[in-house]
Design brief:
This protein is an alpha/beta fold and 262 residues long. The chain is built from 8 helices and 12 strands. The protein has 2 domains: 159 residues, Aminopeptidase; 88 residues, AF0625-like (Rossmann fold), CATH 3.40.50.10700.
Length: 262
């Protein structure tokens, strides 16, 4: 059961600072405000973190294209380590809360008329912790990180998601595999279907391994019903065949994104 939430922010990041300041004005929440980079596990007070059921990291998102984005993703590293964590290790995450937070972010963005894109991202970067966690980020350049309206929208989305949180036992739980880092096919499913997605394995970490698939499933705190495949984003036929072989070997059900009503 998820009842106790902790919001982690950092003083060195303007996006994070502004989100935290807005949240302090919006209500009473539990915070862990640090001085260093939150992607590095060693900068966190793990004894404090372990007192909570779910950790929300309020952060910036750095993009080479510098697009205006508000994004959500689970932390972890499939191969290379991005800014912290351990290669091949993922944090636990909640598909149900991620879906709930994504809906809240979309709702608040639409109501504010903020001209940002809303997206999920594939699982990436640290820190590595044992508590269920999710990142919510403002991207992609310093201009967006300092955008006070964007930080207010994100803070309000967090506030609303926490205050209205109630587990939905009717959602189907899935791990996503395939496609790009930003997840257009999975975004539609998360927002418009009965399916809740936890970790996402993107095409750029292929060739996929059995360990990647099992780690994604095992680090979803709900029981996973199936894997959802971005079929066109799985690469060549031999890569798709290898993936299906891994899934069937482990008796893991799977569906294509096109098979899901949304």
């Amino acid at each position: 059961m998820i009842n106790k939430f902790l919001i982690v922010g950092t003083k060195i990041n303007p996006a994070s600072r502004n989100i935290i300041m807005n949240l302090m004005d919006l209500g009473k929440f539990n915070f862990h405000l640090i001085d260093g980079e939150m992607l590095k596990t060693e900068n966190l007070d793990l004894s404090k973190i372990n007192e909570y059921d779910l950790v929300i990291f309020a952060s910036k998102h750095k993009s080479e294209k510098s697009g205006k984005t508000l994004s959500i993703h689970a932390p972890g590293n499939f191969k290379e380590v991005w800014g912290g964590g351990v290669a091949g290790r993922l944090c636990p995450t909640s598909a149900l809360f991620s879906k709930h937070l994504f809906a809240s972010l979309n709702k608040n963005k639409e109501e504010s008329e903020l001209r940002y894109d809303i997206t999920m991202e594939a699982t990436h970067h640290g820190p590595l912790i044992d508590r269920p966690s999710v990142f919510i980020e403002i991207g992609g350049s310093i201009e967006e990180w300092k955008d006070k309206k964007a930080s207010f929208v994100v803070a309000k989305a967090i506030r609303d998601a926490i205050e209205t949180w109630k587990e939905n036992p009717y959602n189907e739980i899935a791990v996503g595999i395939g496609g790009p880092h930003y997840c257009p096919s999975f975004n539609k499913i998360q927002l418009n279907s009965n399916v809740a997605i936890s970790h996402i394995i993107p095409k750029y970490v292929f060739p996929i391994t059995e360990e990647m698939v099992l780690e994604s499933i095992n680090k979803t705190i709900e029981e996973v019903d199936f894997v959802v495949l971005d079929w066109k984003g799985l690469g060549k036929a031999e890569e798709r065949d290898k993936l299906i072989e891994i899934l069937e070997k482990n008796y893991i059900n799977w569906k294509k994104t096109g098979d899901i009503n949304k």
